[in-house]
Amino acid sequence: MMQRGWVTVALCFLVATFEGVDLQAAGLVAPKIAPLFRLAPDQLGWFFSASTIGLVAGALIGGRLADRIGRKLTLMIAMGVFGVFSITTALSTGYEMLVATRLLTGLGLGGALPNLIALTSESVTANRRSLAVALMYAGMPFGGGLASLLMALAGGANDWKDLFYIGGAAPLVAIPFLMFAIPESPKFAAQGGTVKAQLFDVLFGEGRALKTIGLWISFFCALLVLYLLLNWLPTMLVSRGMPRPQASLVQAALNLVGVLGPVAVGVLMDGTARRWAVAGIFAALAVGLGIQAIAPAEFGIALVTGAVLGIGILGAQSVLYALAPSLYPTAVRGTGVGAAVAAGRLGSIVGPLLAGAMVGKGQSASQVLTALLPLVLVSGVLAFLLADRKHAIQEN
Questions:
Q1: CA-angle at 322, arms to 319 and 324, nearest 5°
Q2: In this model, does residue 200 exceed pLDDT 80?
Q3: Cα 249 to the center of its chain, rounded Å
Q4: Are 85 and 104 in contact (CB under 8 A)?
Q5: How many CB atoms lie within 10 A of CB 76?
Q6: What radius of gyration do the chain's Cα atoms show?
């Protein structure tokens, strides 16, 4: 049983890699499609945010369906949706179609994530849950890093389409295999039915109100920072004089080296240093932002600071993904995690739009990055409080 649980974690890592490719794609292709489609800064912001608007709805729907029809079936449906519309993005002929296809892609991406979290956390024992979720989540920056490397090697004006073709075809090809390879969550199957509790009671009943609200705020702030960086960092580096291939390599370092953050945090959160691991990773994020804000746009320096920033921001995000399932019982875990992911996606929408507005008003990259520090503090303090084991649901 234990061995099969880790097989599920590995397969969920694979699906998360697919998600990572698609989530990173918009930021990577922006320097190419902005002149191609003659996008103004505010239009570019909406291109970035369209998928995250879909992610909000998708996370809510996918989380609720997870508790009704099961984690596995909902995940397969969500993969089909984001696969089809990722491919359709590459066929876009104008701004309106770009935004529409990204919106629908986001619907599938959002539906998949709470099911990945629930499947992973429910497939291993309680004393390995944080590590399992962290390893699954590491697939997302890993996929983002692969996407960054692909764009760094691309040279043609239309090579941006290949990223969406690959990001869409991979999950569609994988669905038939995963239907047989991934078992349903054993904890969901053991509960013997679907949840019929009202949404308000799931989120705020039985003393969960403060935990739910704190988790939402922490998610909102952390994802605002994360998605601003994912979408705007290459563009900001290019605006400071760095060649596009080098900017893509910096983004690749953020994702690939940043994987170390979730893995380290996952190991520590399952041990006695749980809360201090949370404090440490958010402190690393603040330091990384500060360094990136003042560092010159020289490739070697930017590569190192991008890696440090990646460890901090991806580690901080994995903390929240690990905490969320521990705050809700099995019967309503999909709904609770889905709502938290949706709250975070609101931050994902605000982040790229905020950067677009600041850049449009002449704000420098340093000013944009410095403005994120108070949000890191708020998210970190709330995560530190929620990491107290007294808040975790006691399930084996």
A1: 105
A2: no
A3: 20
A4: yes
A5: 20
A6: 19
What's the pLDDT score for residue 278? 92
Rounded CA gap, 258 and 377, in Å? 20
* In the block, residue with structure tokens 């679907």: 194
Q: How far is residue 341 CA from its own chain's centroid?
A: 9
- Distance (Å, whole) CA 187 – CA 100: 37
Q: If DSSP codes are grouped into helix, strand and coil, which group holds residue 67?
A: coil
CA–CA distance, 155 with 352 (Å, rounded to integer): 26
Q: Return all residues near 356 (Cβ < 8 A) that are at least 6 apart.
A: 41, 42, 44, 45, 48, 232
If we measure between CA atoms, which residue out of 126, 134, 183 comes closest to residue 330?
Answer: 126
Between 26 and 83, where is the model more confident?
83
Arithmetic mean of pLDDT, 195-224: 86
Average pLDDT on 346-353 reads: 83
Rounded to two decimals, the pTM is: 0.83
How far apart CA 180 and CA 184 sit, in angstroms, is 10
pLDDT the model gives residue 1: 45
Burial of 160 (0-12, 13-18, 19+ CB in 10 A): buried
Q: Which domains does the chain have, with CATH numbers?
A: 2-391 (1.20.1250.20)
Residue 103's pLDDT is: 94
- When pLDDT is averaged across residues 327-351 and rounded to a whole number, the result is 88
Lowest mean pLDDT among 54-58, 171-175, 281-285, 359-363: 359-363
Range 227-230 contact pairs with CB under 8 angstroms and sequence separation of 24 or more: 227/48, 227/52, 227/347, 227/348, 227/351, 227/352, 228/351, 228/352, 228/354, 228/355, 228/368, 228/372, 229/254, 229/309, 229/313, 230/23, 230/24, 230/27, 230/144
The amino acid at 283: A
Q: What value does the mean pLDDT of the chain take?
A: 86
Place of tokens 């930017």: 302
Residues with Cβ < 8 Å from 231, sequence gap 6 or more? Answer: 26, 27, 30, 48, 351, 352, 355
Q: d(Cα 27, Cα 232) in Å, to the nearest integer? A: 6
